[in-house]
Amino acid sequence: MCSESCLSIMKFVRFVVVIVHCLVVGQAAGGLLSDRLAEVHGDFLENRREAIPSLSDPFGVPDTARIVIENDSERMRAGTPWKRNIVATVFWVGEQPTQNNPTPNTSSAWDQNWMANFGGYDDPDVRRGWCPSGFTPALNPFYIALPYNDVARGGVHRPEASEVIPWFWRDYRGDGLSVCHGKWVAVHLNGRVCYAQWEDVGPFEVDHWQYVFGNEKPRRNRNKSAGIDVSPAVRDFLGMDSGAHVEWRFVDESLVPAGPWLDWAGGVGSSGY
What we know:
Blueprint: H1 4-29, H2 33-56, H3 72-77, E1 83-90, H4 114-118, E2 127-128, E3 131-132, E4 143-146, H5 161-164, H6 168-171, E5 184-189, E6 192-201, H7 209-212, E7 228-230, H8 232-238, E8 244-250, H9 267-270
Parallel strand pairs: 1-7, 4-6
Antiparallel strand pairs: 1-8, 2-3, 4-7, 5-6, 5-8
């Protein structure tokens, strides 16, 4: 059974045959050759129009089998879906181990000298605006932790990282260098949205990509299945208590609006927030 592309070739061959025939007959009849050629040419163009769909898809691939390639950077610029009804707990740089926080926060998953690089202890109780009292942090006090580390032990990326992280190949700089560290996140509570950067891993889990980048809920843990840790600055901006239910999502850096998360060095008041 001949395909549509095969039929198109046969039509073209017939067209050539007709042209030759017209040349022979035209010479014998003496005239009307141009009219006959115009008619045949018109039929040929119509046949070509009908054949265009089959030529663009000569193998007849069904629509459902065609692959659509999505531009990940465009998807990130549009924002990712909100994670809703997520328990948020408060943590801070320099926090010491407790029953509900077994890991000290003098270092982070991506910064062994986190407290020193931050500039000191991010005291959650003694504050000066959005910052701890006594010093201006060298790093953004608007930070969060999520339960996934894209870099595994041994300094290589987890096997699923390149497939589940939307911006992986856009930001990839080599093994051992996280593409998650510093990523911007929006956190919403009661009509207020705070923007913060992903600076640590937790609470409790380090490999729950199905929640962070997928549709799963946070795994059960001793903090009421908490799924995000927020800094004192985020807590204060949202006016929340530890254990509140929030919404969060990833945001491309280009879409982060003006706010104290970009102008925290001036503290509250001088920035007008």
